[in-house]
Amino acid sequence: MELTEFIIKTLTILVVFVLTLVIAMYSTWGERKVAGFIQDRMGPNRAGPGGLLQPLADAGKMFFKEDFIPALANKWLFISGPSLAMLTALLASAVIPFGSTFRYGGAEVVLQGVESNIGILYVFGVVALGVYGIMIGGWASNNKFSLLGAIRAASQNISYEVAMGLSLIAILMMSSSLSLGDIVAQQHGGNWNIFYQPLGFIIFLTCSFAECNRVPFDLPECETELVGGYHTEYGSMKLGFYLFAEYINMFVSSAIISVLYFGGYNYPGMDWVYNQLTAALGTTTGHNIATLIGTGVFFGKALFFIFFYMWVRWTLPRFRYDQLMNLGWKKLIPLAIFNIIITGACVLFLKPYITALLN
Amino acid sequence: MTLMERAYLPAIATGLAITLKHFFAKKVTIQYPEVKRYLGPVFRGRHILKRDEDGRERCTACGLCAVACPAEAISMVAAERVKGEETLYREEKYAAVYEVNMLRCIFCGLCEEACPKQAVYLRHDEFIPVFNDRNQVIWGKDLLVEDMNNRYTREAWTKEEAHILDRKRADGEVTNVIPRAIP
Fold first, then answer.
1. Are the C-beta atoms of residues A127 and A93 closer than 8 Å to each other?
2. Could you read off the pLDDT of A14-53 as tens digits, one per residue?
3. Which pLDDT value is given to residue B106?
4. In whole angstroms, what is the distance from residue A222 CA to residue A215 CA?
5. Pick from A95, A276, A307: which is nearest to A184 by CA?
6. Do B29 and A315 touch (CB under 8 A)?
7. Which member of B12, B18, B27 has the closest CB to residue A40?
8. Rounded alpha-carbon distances, angstroms, from residue A176 to A171, A287, A350, B118
9. pLDDT tens digits for range A264-289
10. Does B30 touch chain A (CB under 8 A)?
11. Which residues does B18 contact at the CB level (< 8 Å), separation at least 6?
12. Cβ distance of B29 and A42 shorter than 8 Å
């Protein structure tokens, strides 16, 4: 049992890992397609049908470029920067619940890399570490532009993490659990958190844009002011890792948004579909197919948010740095605290009243 | 600013709506090597040495094109027609060698205007292909002389005619010509 459990966990982790990488890879293709379509162009369409082989061509190009390290850079840290960015980006996907359970030979396998009871805290810890990759890379480059970009990234991430954490506390007050699996399970039957926490959702979404260093908060790589920002000195696959880490972060935060606010693998009419499937195909096959549909729904939601990230990127211009800081500290944090107070009042006074009314 | 304006979100939503409209809009891209844009009836592309309706070369190697050429791209060697060659050349003198240096040529069309025999034209439908080698730069008679199985015709000869044609096409009177990719 120990060994089978170990093998099953290894396989789940491997699947999660591969899925994250593939989605991040095709996000680069999707980004360029979306950019093209929004600007009335076609986007890449030469490599393979619809340009589908474009990510492979890009990776091939990245690998064959000169792996350059500046003479005065700190070599060890220069290499560890992108590695760390990649590592922390990939770590976060381990605790995301991709679906409910999968029945195989009498055992129930949870479609989640690690069933941690502090899942959301783990995600926040890992995401907070992500800034080290940028900071170390920017500092090790021995370049003022890189350092400025890295400092911007660090201060921006720290500022927006506060508002992000505060907006999340309202969710945790409602769910009274830190486990992502529990938070999703509680949203079953259309009880999506977005309906209870619209303000929290907007704050969380804004902060996730800032955490991923995406437009309109992409000041760390602001090319008008900082050449390339923290990756000015980077080339070859080391630059590729930085860019790739950004897309992995994008997928992870899209998945987290859909888990926290849009019910993860839950969808309307889920119970009806489940009953129909188990009645028609038996409790094992029916259950598994229902789970797969839920997983598909989850990925649909996550992909929509990836699209939303791109959509916003090609719509909004970049904030100025003081505007960014004002928005973070003077608007989002007070709003998040206000949201906590409102939620607390509702949980304390309104919820018992409503439950009493309904019963 | 009012509270609504300071909240950013309505303005962002408007912007997102505009970009989404463009997302589903018709794309203006022309897939170049497969689809070529129509450049108009008076576009000056590559040269052609015309033959007459009996298939005889019109060029008499008078050299007026070479004189008119501001880039000095044209050179030729004249020869006298001998007995038995009447089906090949229209007049008693012809160009034994006629060469255009395509790197020198600026496609101004002055050779076309100088020609008294209506022998040299710049095609409106074909470009010079990309050169891979210096040997491909100078085009001789093998490339320039018209192929009788695939004769070159032009739908309009002057800008005025082209405008009339455009108007007719817009009115739907003319339909047998290739439409432009971009109207």
1. no
2. 888 888 889 888 998 999 999 999 998 888 888 888 888 9
3. 92
4. 10
5. A95
6. no
7. B27
8. 8, 28, 17, 91
9. 888 887 778 878 887 887 777 888 88
10. no
11. A315
12. yes
Residues B115 and A203: their CA atoms lie apart, in Å, by 75
The domains of chain B are located at 47-153
Which string of b and e fits A338-348 if b means at least 16 CB within 10 Å? ebbeebeebee
Give me the residue label for tokens 């944090």.
Answer: A333
Tokens of A229: 């920002």
Q: Token pair for residue B26?
A: 């018709």
Contacts of A326 in chain B (CB under 8 A): none
Q: What is the DSSP letter of A143?
A: -
Complex ipTM tops 0.90: no
Say whether B121 sits in a helix, a strand or coil: strand
- B159-178 per-position pLDDT tens digit: 777 778 777 777 776 655 55
Look up tokens 């804004």; give the residue: A206
User: Residue A179 CB: number of other CB atoms within 10 A?
Assistant: 19
Asked if the bond preceding A82 is cis, omega within 30° of 0, the reply is: no
pLDDT in tens, A167-223: 888 888 888 888 888 888 888 877 888 888 888 899 999 988 888 888 788 877 777
Residue B68 pLDDT level (bands cut at 50, 70, 90): very high
CATH number assigned to the domain with residue range B47-153, chosen from the 4 options 3.40.30.10, 3.90.1150.10, 3.30.70.3270, 3.40.50.1980: 3.30.70.3270
